[in-house]
Design goal:
The chain contains ten helices and two strands, in the order αααααββααααα. The protein has a two-stranded antiparallel ribbon with strand order 1-2. β1 and β2 form a beta hairpin. Helix content is about 70%, strand content about 0%. By secondary structure, the chain is mainly α. It has two domains: about 90 residues, RNA polymerase sigma factor, region 2, helix turn helix motif (Rna Polymerase Sigma Factor, Chain: A, Orthogonal Bundle), CATH 1.10.1740.10; about 80 residues, Orthogonal Bundle (Arc Repressor Mutant, subunit A), CATH 1.10.10.10.
């Protein structure tokens, strides 16, 4: 950390919102991008990244200057994404079950946009296939793949964000890439 960043952190720890805004100015976009890659929904990513920044501000007095502020902040973003996904799984609504509105009940109807050959071909050649495969990974593998291969964090930075050793990071990345390859190969069989 440079001296300006240390000064901004110390001022933020005293409750100076202007210093905090200056401090996170360069990190906001990356926080949003991390959330977007995890959640794959713009609105959810905006909400979670904003919630993460609020958590950073509320907890900045706990930051001890022994690690990188950027790493500490991204750890909060990743944890917020994982928390959001866990909560969202608890609120899943089946489209087969009626939805009760208090006065009446109705069934959710979804348009089938997946069946046209043009759409299948378009999807085959876009990053959606890769992101869909990443979505199928366990959270441990998904996290390191997103941080390393999509957001280009170093092994050391990922180690600090996830609070685990570099060997564990490298192992998870290797195993995650292998599982991702298997998922992609399996998906390609479905299209052929």
């Amino acid at each position: 950390m440079n001296e300006a960043e240390i000064f901004l952190i110390k001022m933020s720890q005293k409750g100076d919102i202007g210093s905090f805004e200056t401090l996170i100015k360069d990190y906001k976009k990356i926080a949003y991008n991390i959330a977007l890659k995890f959640l794959r929904n713009k609105e959810d990513a905006e909400d979670v990244s904003q919630e993460s920044l609020i958590k950073v501000f509320k907890n900045i007095e706990k930051f001890n200057m022994n690690s990188s502020f950027k790493t500490w902040m991204y750890r909060i973003v990743v944890n917020s994404c994982l928390d959001f996904k866990r909560k969202k799984k608890e609120n899943i609504v089946s489209v087969d079950q009626p939805i009760h509105s208090g006065y009446d009940e109705f069934y959710m109807e979804l348009e089938d946009k997946e069946s046209s050959p043009e759409k299948i071909i378009d999807r085959k050649f876009t990053s959606e296939i890769v992101m869909g495969a990443i979505e199928k990974l366990d959270d441990d593998f998904k996290t390191v793949i997103i941080l390393r291969d999509i957001n280009d964090f170093s092994y050391s930075e990922i180690s600090k964000i996830l609070t685990c050793n570099i060997g564990t990071v490298k192992s998870r990345i290797s195993r995650g890439r292998q599982k991702l390859k298997e998922i992609l190969e399996e998906n390609m069989k479905d299209y052929n």
